[in-house]
Write a structure and sequence with these properties.
The protein is mainly alpha-helical. The protein has 20 helices and no strands. α1 crosses α7 and α11 runs antiparallel to α18. It is found in: Membrane.
């Protein structure tokens, strides 16, 4: 095999690996099969098959990193705040209430973060979206197959949600969450690409249809917020004389909507199929704050709080008959596990991402490069209902780390392989022809 052909083969395998990693990071198929076979109506944490698949994924990742370790090491250590947050997770085993769980899940989080760094180091933001589109497109197609041909798996079969679609996921809200992400990704790509644009719009419509069939109101709100953010994000590219009036109008519009929402919270929650307590979540959070006050600075250690009757969560289980298995809020989760230090490090890094995100958006005319200013609020909003910050094997955390790596490195093209001198020419040709779409 010639050097050029070997470089092409490596690139193809690398892309396939990243697409499959994205797909695996949505936790597809295996959890819903376990759920249906168990007959209990809920999932216990941990699955040997998923753990084995992730171990294989990590092994492939380590091989890719070894192939290009100098650039990876530079990218991994460039973001000091992110590095400090990951170090905090690792050393939290020293005060964790469940140290063995902290070690296992902390290792998984480190590997998940490394995937994001590798992705951000190797691929432009627009190409990251194309890789993500392949994974979300696969998830959408398989979800249709499951719902139509395997309804016992693909449809909700109990409770108030009978008949709603869950596709290849264990719960309707999970399908809704990823289809809302697809509704953003395929829209931005549909506005950016020229070749195969119809494919983007087809999968955009499929994502919206699956989101509606899932009946997930939270995911629908997240998608609508992301869409609303597109015009002001695009306005960042305009001259100051036009940008400031448009942003001022958007601020007035947003303030008006917020006022209407807070004026009738009961009605808004009713439209979402919830009560003002968010189905009991706001009753849970004060009790969790009481537990946090016992270890406010560093928390209970990464994944060191929720262990049923065997961990600090036992106090919560005594109080709530429905036995919550997580905080139902990502920020509360981080606060419990890593205290104010962990939340502070995350928030400082999150806020610091906006100036380079604005600079990135202004430096390009492509709709796909609006992604930084769309995804940051989208992830923040997603983290309110579910924990995606510092979540191991989670697609949202991978995308966040990759985005930070891209913004920090300010690299618009992939890094050539250090060990393959012919790869630079390959990458130049590849940059002239962006990644294909699903």
């Amino acid at each position: 095999m010639t050097p050029t052909r070997s470089g092409k083969f490596f690139t193809a395998m690398e892309r396939m690996f990243l697409v499959l990693t994205f797909f695996l990071a949505t936790a597809p198929i295996i959890p819903v099969v376990r759920l249906v076979r168990s007959g209990t109506g809920y999932l216990t944490s941990g699955d040997p098959l998923m753990q084995a698949l992730w171990l294989v994924d990590y092994l492939v990742l380590f091989l890719l990193i070894a192939w290009n370790w100098r650039q990876f090491l530079a990218a991994m250590t460039r973001d000091k705040l992110m590095l400090a947050l990951i170090v905090l997770v690792v050393i939290s085993v020293g005060w964790s209430a469940i140290p063995l769980v902290t070690v296992r899940r902390g290792f998984a989080l480190v590997c998940t973060t490394m995937i994001g760094v590798y992705l951000g180091m190797r691929y432009r933001i627009s190409d990251q979206l194309r890789l993500l589109a392949w994974a979300l497109g696969l998830a959408a197609v398989l979800s249709v197959v499951f719902a139509l041909l395997l309804p016992n798996f693909g449809l909700e079969t109990s409770g108030d949600h009978i008949g709603l679609w869950r596709g290849i996921y264990h719960q309707k809200n999970v399908l809704g969450r990823y289809m809302s992400l697809g509704g953003v990704v395929f829209l931005l790509l549909g506005l950016s690409v020229r070749r195969h644009r119809w494919v983007c719009w087809l999968f955009f419509l499929l994502s919206i249809a699956l989101l509606l069939l899932s009946g997930s109101k939270n995911a629908l709100v997240s998608l609508l917020v992301a869409w609303v953010l597109i015009p002001p994000a695009a306005a960042m590219r305009l001259p100051v004389s036009l940008k400031l009036p448009l942003l001022f109008l958007f601020l007035i519009f947003g303030s008006g909507i917020a006022t209407l929402i807070f004026a009738d919270l009961e009605g808004v929650f009713g439209l979402m199929g919830k009560d003002a307590t968010l189905t009991g979540r706001t009753d849970l959070w004060p009790s969790l704050l009481d537990m946090w006050q016992e270890q406010p600075i560093l928390g209970y250690g990464y994944s060191g709080f929720w262990a049923g009757w065997d961990g600090p969560s036992a106090e919560i289980w005594k109080e709530f008959f429905w036995h919550p298995r997580h905080a139902h809020n990502g920020f509360m989760q981080v606060l419990l596990e890593l205290g104010v230090v962990g939340v502070g490090l995350f928030m400082i890094r999150f806020i610091a991402a906006f100036p380079p995100a604005i600079a990135w958006v202004r430096s390009s005319k492509q709709a796909a490069d609006l992604w930084p200013l769309i995804y940051l609020p989208f992830m923040f909003l997603s983290n309110i209902a579910e924990s995606v910050v510092l979540a191991q094997n989670n697609i949202f955390w991978i995308l966040y780390v990759a985005l930070l790596c891209s913004l920090t490195g300010r690299s618009s093209s992939p890094v050539p392989l250090a060990s393959d001198p012919t790869h630079l020419a390959l990458e130049r040709r590849r940059n002239a022809h962006p990644l294909p779409l699903p």
